[in-house]
Specification:
By secondary structure, this protein is α+β, with helices and mostly antiparallel strands. It has a single domain, classed as Class II aldolase/adducin N-terminal domain (L-fuculose-1-phosphate Aldolase, 3-Layer(aba) Sandwich), CATH 3.40.225. It is 39% helix and 14% strand. GO terms for molecular function: actin filament binding.
């Protein structure tokens, strides 16, 4: 399949306009590299987007045709909510793929980062009628806090965008039926850590279902555990992200370029 589109262009600087954007670029490039190392990528498809600090309506996204494991901070393309590339760049972008992200960013002011993947475990659980079950502590992080959206085909229209964001509501994560997973974060770190937790929960569920009958905790326990893991709405990833960056700096530091 090919979505190599040449989008329209908008005025503005294509590169970093200050240290805050430079920091977000590094974090976003790191998220791409880390996702590749976990084998969450899907050839050159799927995206992780982030808002540009100080530039309302502007976002950073991967150039189309690049694998996740080769994304650098300087490769990220600045794009606006209409799918227009900001400034001069020779990098193509997947406007069709960005449409989903644009809808979520527009509907959720807290969604600084939107991460959408086609990981195998997430797609498999999304195709199960009951979705994610409270079979593990990882899954209970999303107990009562996980949205679902039914599959509507390849073409992503504004009408589906409205339905998808209505399904998402104020949840931090979503199973896109027969399609994949989505998380939103107030930081790149939060979106990444939420995705890591969701994928692990899906992997545990698939593994447990290979054996004998599964055991679920009583609803009251699942509710209490979910509330404990929610931790009053504390931002996820604040401790995990520096450790992940240190690991990446040891083995794959090129993401910072």
């Amino acid at each position: 399949m090919s979505f190599a589109l040449q989008p329209g262009r908008a005025a503005g600087p294509a590169g970093p306009t200050g240290p805050e954007e430079a920091r977000v670029r590094v974090d976003l490039a790191a998220a791409y590299r880390l996702a590749a190392r976990e084998r969450w990528d899907d050839l050159i498809y799927t995206h992780i987007s982030a808002t540009v600090p100080g530039e309302p309506g502007h976002f950073l996204i991967n150039p189309f045709g690049f694998a996740f494991d080769e994304i650098r901070a300087s490769d990220l393309v600045k794009i606006n909510g209409r799918g227009e590339v900001v400034g001069e760049t020779v990098r193509p972008v997947n406007v069709t793929g960005f449409a989903l992200h644009a809808a979520v960013h527009a509907a959720r002011p807290d969604a600084h980062c939107v991460m959408h993947l086609h990981n195998t475990a997430g797609i498999a659980v999304s195709a199960q009628a009951e979705g994610l079950l409270p079979l593990s502590q990882h899954a209970m992080r999303f107990h009562g806090r996980l949205a679902c959206h039914d599959y509507e085909g390849l073409a992503f229209t504004p009408e589906e965008g409205a339905r998808l964001t209505a399904s998402l509501g104020d949840h931090p994560a979503m199973l896109l039926r027969n399609h994949g997973t989505l998380t939103v974060g107030r930081t790149v770190a939060e979106a990444y850590v939420l995705m890591a937790t969701l994928i692990k929960a899906c992997e545990i569920q698939l593994g447990a279902q290979l054996g004998s009958a599964t055991v679920q905790p009583p609803p009251a326990i699942a509710d209490r555990t979910s509330l404990q893991l929610y931790d009053g709405g504390a931002v996820e990833g604040e401790l995990e992200w520096p450790a992940l960056l240190r690991r990446l700096d040891r083995i794959d530091p090129g993401y910072r370029d």
